[in-house]
Design a protein that fits this description.
Length: about 160
């Protein structure tokens, strides 16, 4: 069973209200406390099912209660960029994980993939590249600093 951190993106209207619309994907643009609470619920196993949200790349918003995680599931894979970040509240995530993997992706592969993602949202190449440089790559630097805190580092080929 897989649960992603992206389901905890703040709603676009909330990002606009907070002035974060241009930084969507940065650590402060998530309900990190909600994410930690969900991990604690999953870890405790006290509920017959915990429903996790997903992020829709079609509507570019989170969809609540989209992934049912029954208590009898033995392995839950949690995926996300900030699982090893050392600042609150993200620093509460690592103790809730049994094993932490870091996927090391060459910069060129990462940037090309991110540009394709932004183009699929309807941005032209220039706007996509600008978003990747001003937002995604800023986030990538934060994430790279967490690399050594992983139990296992997997290298994605270039």
């Amino acid at each position: 069973m897989a649960v992603g951190m992206d389901g905890f993106h703040l709603a676009n209207s909330e990002l606009s209200r907070l002035g974060y619309a241009g930084r969507k994907g940065a650590p402060e643009t998530f309900d990190a406390y909600g994410f930690v609470a969900m991990l604690r619920r999953l870890r405790a196993g006290d509920e017959p099912v915990v429903y996790a949200p997903i992020y829709s790349r079609t509507v570019h918003e989170s969809v609540n209660a989209a992934i049912p995680v029954p208590s009898d599931i033995r392995v839950v894979i949690v995926e996300g960029n900030y699982l090893l970040l050392r600042r609150a509240p993200w620093d509460q995530v690592r103790p809730l994980l049994d094993v932490a993997l870091y996927l090391d992706t060459p910069a060129g592969v990462r940037v090309d993939s991110l540009i394709r993602r932004q183009r699929s949202r309807g941005l032209d190449r220039s706007a996509a590249l600008n978003w990747v440089r001003s937002s995604d790559e800023v986030n990538a630097k934060l994430i790279a600093a967490t690399r050594e805190d992983a139990d296992v580092i997997l290298a994605r080929p270039g």
